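User: Quick one: structure for sequence A, then sequence B.

Assistant: Sequence A:
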Amino acid sequence: MIRNCKVCGASYKTCYSCEKERSWRLHTDTPEHYYIWTVLMGYQANHDAKQAYSALRKRGIDLRNTAEYTPSVQALLAEIYALAHENSRAKKAVVEAEETKAEEQVNNEAEPQQE
């Protein structure tokens, strides 16, 4: 049977045993694409961009270089990348704001002693 990979869109053949055993070959042409597909399905179910980003990065998947994937997969990877970095940027901004506030307090406390 001829199938199309749900991640890259490439055509590939499956055999009877793949169909019967409900193998990863029912969905994708390679084990790596199956991993991407399962992470994306998990992301669509739980909307945890940080977890999906971490899982994909652990396998060495570059979320910025997605030209080989289907448009729907590209969109999901871009969404995960944006949300994961948005969260880290927000945390960084909070930490920087707290550090600035602490520095101002130290400076304000030090000024009266200098007089």
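Sequence B:
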Amino acid sequence: MKLSINKAINDGRVKSIRLIATIGCALLLTAGCASNQRVSTEPLLAAEQAIDNAERARVSQYAAAELMQAREILGLAKVALTKKDLINANRLAQQSQVTAQLAFAHAELIKAEQINTEIKQSIEQLKQEMQRNRDANL
């Protein structure tokens, strides 16, 4: 019986199965590690584009603090990327993008509020002029 077990172990088919299993495990481990370490510059590019869009819209006139914060966070994301801290780099890049979008929205809100104030002032001036015209015609 001992002889037949040794013969089966030394059989070419068992060796092939072991080799295939070993290679399969190695490939799975390599693929798993590679997918975790893949560098994605997409979040960084999206953050840079959001900041560029905000700068083109002259957001710094209305929301300079938020735009500066977005730039600082993007800088931290780039530092994290150079340190191969990909999870933190992506998180910071996304935070930078959202902060730049917030700055853009805040600037748009301020502009809209200014326009609203101007319209209210114009309406009030028109009301006063209409009242003067009524008073003059009486």
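The radius of gyration is 33 Å. The mean pLDDT is 81.

User: Thanks, that's what I needed.
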